[in-house]
Amino acid sequence: MDVLRQLQDFYRERKSYLYLSILCLATATALGLVYPNLLRYLIDDIIRLRQFDQVPMLVVALFGVTILKALMQFLHGFFGGRLGNYLAYRLRNACYEKLQFLSFRYYDTAKTGDLMSRLTGDLEAIRNFIGFGFAQLLNVFLMVIFGAAVMFSLNWQLTLVTLISIPFLVYVALRFESRIHPAFQEMRLALSSLTTAVQENITGVRTVKAFAREPHEVDKFSIRNERYRTNQIFTSTLWSRYFPVMELLASVCIVILLGFGGTLVIRGSMTLGELVAFFTLIWYIIGPMWGLGFHINNYTQSKASTERVLEILNQPIDVTDHENARPLHPGDMKGHVQFDHVTFAYGNKMAAVVDINIDAPPGSVIGLLGGTGSGKSTIIQLMMRAYNVNEGSIRIDGTDIRDIRIGDLRASIASVFQETFLFSSTIKNNIAYGINEVSMEEIVRVAKLAKAHEFIMEMPNGYDTIVGERGLGLSGGQKQRLAIARALLKDPKILILDDATSAVDMETEHEIQSGFQEVMRGRTTFIIAHRISSLRHADEILVLQEGRVIQRGKHEDLIKVEGPYQDTYRVQYADHIQRVEEQQRLADAGQSTVDTASQTSNEADEPMEALRDGEKDDVWDNPSDTAGSREQVRPHE
Ligand SMILES: Nc1ncnc2c1ncn2[C@@H]1O[C@H](COP(=O)(O)OP(=O)(O)OP(=O)(O)O)[C@@H](O)[C@H]1O
């Protein structure tokens, strides 16, 4: 049995339960054969010979057999249940553990609903088969063999004649199985697609509502629901045809038995007790035949389920530690990041980044700017070794990251992403996620730095407020601030801010960034942003286009040369530039005082200076003040 062999690693310690379960069921089956014999004895030896004094003994024997059979059935259920549950428990744990370590590449194409159905429906099918189905299937064969043996011992001619329709029963059962199995498989797929639709709909409920796509979603679900319903109807039609056919064939058996057996009794070549025993025994054989299709179907289903579950467990992990991977102690790390001619493509797609070279000395700040899909996030993902580079190498403190233990590498990098995931737990636990021991003072300190403390204190239970699944109940900006606090608490040597302040307004961004200035000190920081104001402090800014670096340098230099950076700057600061040019024009025309002209000229040429001086209303911090909008402008889109 393939299923048993493939899964044996998961139930090896409880193999004895499998044997005990089978043994108990076989004993219960064998004990079932005692009834027809007792019946024969009652008719032939007690009633016919009028030996009624033996009735009490017969009753005791019958009672004893019944108790013993019940006990055996209980033990079969007990051991089977234990075995099935143990196996399902081990498999569930193994799958969950595997899901933790599977590469990002796997999750790029995996469907949550499908994975959920593997971990629930498929595991249930396996649990049922290993716990009960297997023993039941074996039992069908045992019953037929035991039953036929006893019938032969009673009367071999009648046995042969009666069992003539058995091959037809087997044929119908197998044919039924061959049709119901694909139907069941189709049903499981349909169910999985239903689950996926529900899961996606709940996860993306905001998007659905924002686009008023509820009717479309309802239609989409209806189509999948219809597919599931059609399948259900098909399978129930198969079932409804199956039972009458089996009943008909069984009746043929009984008619033959009564006709031929009755003749034998009349002729005196068989006793009445034997005929009655035969009648009981034939049901003993036919009964399991009815279930044969079901048991085989149960087996094939669990085989398919086993394959689906094992597919997860046998999934190769392409990003993994090699044997000699070095540990990296955060204390020893300096944070020198180097990209050396890095090229990478997702699967067979076109390269997402091409020939990237970066040298980020410890404590430096690298800014990444570029349009959607230009490869900014990919650079960050590669640094965290979410994927292995196709060409070139990434080094941290001179060591190729493929030679560093992945756990250590990721532990030394803290990132804040565009999308913030919050676990359904307290705010405190969410900030302290991934850190074992941390004081409340520390949590409050980082929350203050991330400008989250104030709104947390306004919540009903402060830091003990539970935030729902995916942080529902918090605004995008609030979630992002919690994520920033979480990253700061990690005290990383390398900090990644992937559009980390996209969901907060300009003023809060400025406040958070002034906090960043402090926490960035001594850390190598990578900032991905669409707003030039977020990148202005960077030691080097890389402008990306279609995966290639097309411009690089400091802000002050980049705004002076023609190119995408200057274009972006012009778009984002259009009003300010216009105002400066206007004032310049007026000054040139002699309609303005010398003082005003020099002041505006300084503003345009020395924006960094103005910012460093902490001028709150400076246009670099709040370009939207002059643009009259809080919306960010995305370059090159
Ligand atoms: N998981 C993925 N699987 C396949 N292709 C991907 C994946 N992630 C990104 N890409 C592709 O790689 C390219 C670079 O994407 P990337 O996410 O790095 O861009 P980005 O500059 O960060 O964009 P954005 O500003 O929109 O976040 C795009 O063409 C994108 O479609």
TrEMBL record:
<feature type="compositionally biased region" description="Polar residues">
    <location>
        <begin position="590"/>
        <end position="602"/>
    </location>
</feature>
<dbReference type="Pfam" id="PF00005">
    <property type="entry name" value="ABC_tran"/>
</dbReference>
<keyword id="KW-1133">Transmembrane helix</keyword>
<dbReference type="InterPro" id="IPR039421">
    <property type="entry name" value="Type_1_exporter"/>
</dbReference>
<dbReference type="InterPro" id="IPR036640">
    <property type="entry name" value="ABC1_TM_sf"/>
</dbReference>
<feature type="domain" description="ABC transmembrane type-1">
    <location>
        <begin position="20"/>
        <end position="301"/>
    </location>
</feature>
<dbReference type="InterPro" id="IPR027417">
    <property type="entry name" value="P-loop_NTPase"/>
</dbReference>
<feature type="compositionally biased region" description="Basic and acidic residues">
    <location>
        <begin position="609"/>
        <end position="619"/>
    </location>
</feature>
<dbReference type="InterPro" id="IPR003593">
    <property type="entry name" value="AAA+_ATPase"/>
</dbReference>
<feature type="transmembrane region" description="Helical">
    <location>
        <begin position="275"/>
        <end position="296"/>
    </location>
</feature>
<keyword id="KW-0812">Transmembrane</keyword>
<keyword id="KW-0472">Membrane</keyword>
<dbReference type="GO" id="GO:0005524">
    <property type="term" value="F:ATP binding"/>
</dbReference>
<protein>
    <submittedName>
        <fullName>ATP-binding cassette subfamily B protein</fullName>
    </submittedName>
</protein>
<feature type="transmembrane region" description="Helical">
    <location>
        <begin position="16"/>
        <end position="35"/>
    </location>
</feature>
<feature type="region of interest" description="Disordered">
    <location>
        <begin position="586"/>
        <end position="637"/>
    </location>
</feature>
<dbReference type="InterPro" id="IPR011527">
    <property type="entry name" value="ABC1_TM_dom"/>
</dbReference>
<keyword id="KW-0067">ATP-binding</keyword>
<keyword id="KW-0547">Nucleotide-binding</keyword>
<dbReference type="Pfam" id="PF00664">
    <property type="entry name" value="ABC_membrane"/>
</dbReference>
<feature type="transmembrane region" description="Helical">
    <location>
        <begin position="248"/>
        <end position="269"/>
    </location>
</feature>
<feature type="domain" description="ABC transporter">
    <location>
        <begin position="337"/>
        <end position="571"/>
    </location>
</feature>
<dbReference type="InterPro" id="IPR017871">
    <property type="entry name" value="ABC_transporter-like_CS"/>
</dbReference>
<feature type="transmembrane region" description="Helical">
    <location>
        <begin position="55"/>
        <end position="72"/>
    </location>
</feature>
<dbReference type="InterPro" id="IPR003439">
    <property type="entry name" value="ABC_transporter-like_ATP-bd"/>
</dbReference>
<feature type="transmembrane region" description="Helical">
    <location>
        <begin position="156"/>
        <end position="174"/>
    </location>
</feature>
<feature type="transmembrane region" description="Helical">
    <location>
        <begin position="125"/>
        <end position="150"/>
    </location>
</feature>
